[in-house]
Write a structure and sequence with these properties.
The protein has 419 residues and is of the alpha+beta class. The protein contains 4 helices and 24 strands.
């Protein structure tokens, strides 16, 4: 009987192990991709709803488009210095007026009475000061006359003393009479010295008082002039020659102190007030040029003033004409200007789109080569105009970028484009 033989089990061929390992690696890769894709925030948007632009090399005209409004170069506002009731209106709104021309008359009974009372009080004070000054002059004259009398008395006594000195030697008059004359002369000399000292003191006091009186009189006269001018201010006159563009008053209407009465514009000189995006605030300065077209002709203006306040993302500039003002220019007219910020330069350009408002130009969605998926990418930008923005880093020429608004996809890291 034949013996059974143990059959050895054959091992798997090596190529099967390789195939199994390859399949396992592929499965692991697909699993990793699935997990990775699940962790990426993805937004799906129809391609028809997006604007896609190409990054390209080109020349960046360093200008920005702004809208300006034509305004008078100089305007003067009319305010009520003192309130009152509108009594008369001499001109109509919109009329051309000359400097000093009466525009309207206000009436104010209380002011009239106050002015009259102030006039009386100030006039009384002026009269009192004048009387004091006259009294000082009178005192000076009296002192001078007193000194004259003393000096005359001294001269007379000296003459008597010389004459009687010989007589007393001859014993023709008594020694007592002669001594009386000597004593009187000494007294008069001492009186003269005292009076002269008093005169010096009076002169010093009078000079100080005269200076004080002069200052007080000057102030009182200023107050008098001010009081009179406050009453005269009820007659409102044109401070400059120009057009009375505003006069919102009615007969019998009451106006309070400081209330706006109207406005006068210098109509033969204009400026342009324009608002600029705050992005350019560090690049705008007085002296820069802006260009615009009016009635088929090119004109230029220069920045005269940059206002530092920023409101709603905009700041204001004033521009003035460096040449003749166009004849067709009118107050209130709107102009489209190109503000020149620098010289043209060859650089990498990305068309401007709504995405700038959401990202500030700090990142964009860049399409892959297939054009089906866009990925979020950080970029660095520089100058811009109304058409293009300069790309300094993060993009290459030929790449495609979503440039429409990112409102619905701003939180995503990847955008899937669907048909």
């Amino acid at each position: 009987m034949a013996m059974d033989r143990v059959i050895q089990k054959q091992g798997r061929p090596w190529w099967q192990w390789v195939l199994a390992l390859s399949v396992a690696m592929v499965l692991i890769w697909f699993l990793y991709q699935a997990i990775s894709n699940a962790s990426i925030r993805t937004a799906r948007v129809p391609a028809s709803q997006l604007i896609i632009s190409n990054v390209q090399m080109g020349t960046l005209d360093d200008v920005v488009s702004v809208r300006g409004n034509v305004q008078p170069l100089n305007s003067v506002f009319l305010d009520a210095v003192n309130g009152g009731v509108v009594e008369r209106i001499f001109v109509e709104e919109g009329a051309f007026v000359e400097a000093g021309q009466p525009l309207l008359q206000l009436s104010n009974t209380s002011l009239r009475l106050n002015v009259a009372s102030n006039d009386t009080a100030i006039t009384e004070q002026l009269n009192n000061l004048t009387n004091i000054a006259n009294g000082l002059e009178t005192t000076q004259l009296n002192t001078e006359r007193e000194i004259i009398n003393i000096e005359y008395r001294i001269v007379t006594l000296e003459r008597q003393m010389r004459r009687q000195q010989e007589l007393v030697s001859d014993r023709m008059i008594s020694q007592e009479d002669f001594d009386a004359i000597v004593d009187e002369l000494e007294y008069q000399n001492r009186l003269l010295t005292n009076t002269q000292a008093r005169q010096k003191l009076e002169d010093r006091i009078r000079q100080d008082r005269q200076l004080q009186i002069a200052e007080q009189i000057e102030k009182l006269e200023e107050n008098l002039t001010l009081a009179q001018s406050s009453f005269e201010s009820l007659l409102v006159r044109a401070p400059i020659t120009g057009q009375l563009t505003s006069l919102p008053v009615q007969l019998g209407e009451s106006k309070i102190n400081g209330e706006r009465l109207g406005q006068i514009d210098v109509v033969d000189q204009y400026k342009i007030a324009a608002q600029v995006d705050e992005f350019y605030v560090s690049r705008v300065a007085p002296g820069q040029e802006a260009r615009f077209i009016l009635a088929g002709n090119d004109f230029s203006v220069l920045i005269d003033k940059v206002y530092p306040e920023i409101s709603s993302g905009l700041f204001t500039i004033d521009l003035i004409f460096d040449t003749d003002v166009p004849e067709t220019l009118r107050r209130g007219q709107t102009l489209q200007l190109e503000l020149v910020l620098g010289s043209p330069q060859e650089t990498l350009l990305l068309p401007v789109g709504s995405f700038v408002q959401e990202t500030g130009g700090n990142w964009v969605f860049v399409l892959d080569d297939a054009g089906e998926t866009a990925y979020r990418r950080e970029i660095s930008v520089g100058r811009r105009n109304n058409r293009f923005i300069e790309v300094r880093d993060g993009l290459r020429a030929g790449e495609r970028v979503i440039t429409s608004g990112y409102g619905a996809i701003a939180e995503a890291d990847r955008v899937q484009l669907s048909q």
